[in-house]
Specification:
By secondary structure, this protein is an alpha/beta fold. The chain has helices at about 15-20, 20-35, 40-45, 60-75, 85-90, 90-95, 115-125, 140-145, 160-180, 180-190, 190-210, 225-240, 275-285, 315-335; strands spanning about 50-55, 80-85, 100-105, 130-135, 145-150, 215-220, 245, 265-270, 290-295, 305-310. The strands form two sheets. Strands 2-1-3-4-5 form a five-stranded parallel beta sheet, with helices on both faces. A five-stranded parallel beta sheet has the order 7-6-8-9-10, with helices on both faces.
Length: about 350
């Protein structure tokens, strides 16, 4: 794929490269998971958990949302996501008394303080731990009972793009494995090929939308909810634009006051909510927002400035991974449009370490 970095030559070149490298990283992640997957089975079978807690910070928390929602749907086991800081500050609100848990901690670096402390807190409670990381030799990988790694997801950029989708893929593969879900696993294996196709669409399309809008709203239900939060974070980190994330139907309950000219609302469509989401798109446009609708099939007409049909026949959960290149390139182009360098986000470091 020909890369078109921003106006100042190298502006955002690193981030853009990592965005476009994602399908290759997913292929490597799929292959590597198969080598280590059997190790998670013992951990679940020794003491079957009542609930699986997915955790992380920032992007790694948002991918945990999508992973937890999918894990529960695929395996039938109770699962939820909590930020690592909540485990430290309100452990009893996260871990129900007398319940057996498994903790799944996600971290690109494997060194984020809160995530490491959350893992240690779980270990002290004799909760078995799994980590999802790009850093196989990190403290998190060493301290977890089982480390599921995606070295191919590792990045040089501060903002997470390739690492997010690769760690999310590990979480979804874990769900497929524990749910013995052959069809879902088959869907996940299709992602690298589909991802290449999606990138070809997303890069030029999001450039058209992304360079001028002043406010962004990201809406996603079920597995797409974590994607909406990640889209909000990408826009905040790279482009420093006001951005919010909500469940689609929640948006009418107050936040719709934000919808107006200059607002772009991106709806990460689900099959499960298609009709309700179409009605919401209509209302958003009525209030003057520009609507970008991403969905799988565009058979039913929906009023939107941009209606992208992916045509993959994937389930909502597997397709959520393919929404990421749209969110990432939208933030990338908005940053470039504001003459910001996506490779150098203001005030951010790639790892947060607390003293
Ligand atoms: C998580 C994280 C990133 C965020 C920032 C600081 O890191 O919060 O999501 O973009 O750069 O770190 P990690 O635990 O996944 O390494």
């Amino acid at each position: 794929m020909t890369l078109q970095p921003g106006n100042r030559g190298s502006q955002g070149a690193l981030t853009l490269q990592e965005i476009t490298d994602q399908p290759a990283a997913w292929s490597a992640t799929l292959a590597r998971f198969e080598e280590t997957a059997s190790r998670v089975d013992g951990l679940f079978e020794d003491r079957p958990p009542d609930e699986v807690i997915f955790t992380g910070c920032g992007s790694s928390y948002y991918l945990s949302m999508t992973a937890a929602s999918t894990f529960q749907r695929i395996t039938g086991l109770r699962a939820k996501a909590a930020p690592a800081s909540e485990i430290l500050q309100f452990p009893e609100s996260v871990f129900a008394k007398d319940a057996a848990h498994v903790l799944v901690a996600a971290s690109r670096s494997g060194t984020t303080t809160e995530t490491l402390r959350a893992l240690k807190a779980a270990t002290r409670r004799r909760i078995p731990t799994i980590c999802l990381t790009c850093a196989a030799r990190s403290p998190l990988a060493r301290q977890a009972d089982v480390a599921l790694c995606s070295p191919a997801g590792a990045e040089r950029s501060v903002v997470m793009t390739k690492s997010f989708s690769s760690l999310l893929l590990l979480g979804l593969l874990l769900a497929a494995r524990r749910g013995d879900a052959t069809a879902f696993r088959r869907e996940l294996r299709r992602l690298p090929v589909l991802g290449r196709r999606v990138l070809k669409t997303a890069l030029p399309l999001m450039r058209e939308i992304g360079t001028t809008a002043s406010r962004f709203v990201f809406l996603g239900a079920g597995p797409a909810h974590g994607i909406a939060w990640e889209a909000m974070l990408k826009m905040t980190e790279m482009a420093q634009r006001p951005a919010v994330a909500y469940h689609p139907l929640e948006f009418r309950h107050g936040p719709i006051a934000l919808a107006g000219p200059g607002t772009v609302a991106v709806l990460f469509g689900t099959d499960a909510g298609a009709a309700l989401e179409a009605a919401l798109a209509r209302d958003l446009r009525k209030h003057g927002a520009a609507v970008v609708l991403l969905r799988d099939h565009g058979a039913a007409h929906v009023e939107a400035e941009l209606d992208v049909s992916l045509g993959t026949d994937l389930s909502d959960a597997a397709r959520s991974v393919l929404y990421l290149p749209f969110a990432q390139t939208l933030a990338y182009w908005r940053a470039v449009g504001a003459d910001l360098d996506p490779d150098r986000p203001q005030h951010l470091t790639s790892v947060v370490r607390l003293r």
